[in-house]
């Protein structure tokens, strides 16, 4: 039975790149992995395939009326199975898409140990979350950088997860993953947000031009620079995700801030930055 793990993230925070590097790190240690891209652009698995886009399930269904393993599952770096859903439409269309996937046996082509769903971008969390939850989603992670608008989007994701978990079993929350972190202020900023929303951070990944360079080559960091420090961060995060998936520990579900609470929290951090910039406290003391 595959462990199905969901990753959410606002567009622009590097969710797809992060997940692709996690997939690469897992598969190089011997796990069988399938990565499922759920954004309309169909580019989640691009850097696992030498920078080449693969045909999407939605496009194939529109053209041929049916799908098969040979036409929709593509083998990427070291055997990662890559599947792109593409522009799937509304909730009913997405449900039919998952039914077609099950009928074709696509998720069990080789019995993957982990199926990683990339739900990055602005698509509806509710639309994708429910059909995946019904099919046994084990954990959900949320990816963010230290930009306030990204954290505000995370707060919105938390609110949606709370709402979806009221009338049905909630998918356990694995943690908030800080990505593209540049300095101690950004680290403290994200950690404090996690504290206020009763969650935990997991596997912080620093910002690095190496990630951009490897993307330009159409590769993950794990493939193009396997001995780099950046590759270490991805491998560490992959190990933490495996540990979370295997843990029987009861996890706290996120508690979204109200609009007023989020605004007040932001203003407190603005005051701290003002104090630092104007020498009212020693450098770093406001963090």
Structure in words:
There is one protein chain. The chain has 287 residues and is an alpha/beta fold. It folds into 2 domains: 3-256, P-loop containing nucleotide triphosphate hydrolases (Rossmann fold), CATH 3.40.50.300; 258-287. It contains 11 helices and 8 strands. The protein has helices at 15-28, 57-64, 69-72, 91-104, 125-134, 148-164, 184-196, 209-216, 221-224, 229-246, 259-277; strands at residues 3-9, 33-37, 74-75, 81-84, 114-120, 137-144, 173-181, 205-206. An 8-stranded mixed β-sheet has the order 3-4-2-5-1-6-7-8, with helices on both faces. β7 (173-181), α7 and β8 (205-206) form a beta-alpha-beta unit. The radius of gyration is 19 Å and the shape is globular. The N and C termini lie far apart (44 Å).
Relevant CATH superfamily of the largest domain: P-loop containing nucleotide triphosphate hydrolases
Report the order of strands and helices.
EHEHHEEHEHEHEHEHHHH
Question: Based on DSSP secondary structure assignment, what is the total number of beta strands?
Answer: 8
CA-atom Rg in angstroms: 19 Å
The structure class reads alpha/beta
């Amino acid at each position: 039975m595959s462990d199905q793990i969901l990753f959410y993230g606002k567009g622009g925070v590097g969710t797809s790149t992060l997940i692709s590097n996690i997939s690469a790190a897992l598969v190089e240690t011997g796990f069988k992995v399938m990565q499922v891209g759920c954004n309309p652009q169909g580019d989640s698995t691009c850097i696992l395939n030498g920078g080449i886009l693969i045909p999407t399930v939605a496009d194939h269904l529109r053209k041929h009326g049916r799908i098969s393993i040979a036409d929709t599952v593509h083998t990427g770096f070291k055997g990662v199975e890559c599947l792109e859903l593409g522009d799937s439409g509304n909730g009913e269309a997405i449900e039919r898409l998952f039914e077609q996937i099950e009928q074709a046996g696509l998720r069990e082509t080789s019995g993957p140990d982990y199926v990683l769903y990339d739900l990055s971008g602005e698509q509806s969390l509710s639309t994708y979350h429910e059909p995946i939850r019904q099919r046994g989603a084990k954990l959900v992670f949320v990816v963010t950088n230290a930009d306030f608008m990204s954290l505000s989007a995370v707060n919105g994701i938390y609110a949606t997860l709370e709402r979806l978990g009221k009338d049905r079993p909630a998918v356990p929350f694995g943690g908030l993953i800080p990505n593209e972190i540049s300095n101690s202020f950004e680290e403290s900023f994200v950690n404090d947000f996690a504290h206020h929303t009763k969650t935990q951070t997991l596997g912080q990944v620093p910002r690095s031009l190496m990630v951009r360079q490897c993307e330009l080559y159409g590769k993950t960091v794990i493939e193009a620079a396997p001995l780099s420090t950046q590759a270490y961060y991805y491998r560490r995060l992959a190990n933490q995700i495996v540990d979370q998936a295997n843990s029987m520990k009861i996890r706290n579900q996120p508690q979204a801030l109200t609009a007023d609470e989020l605004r007040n929290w932001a203003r407190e951090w603005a005051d701290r930055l003002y104090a630092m910039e104007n020498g009212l406290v020693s450098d770093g003391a406001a963090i």
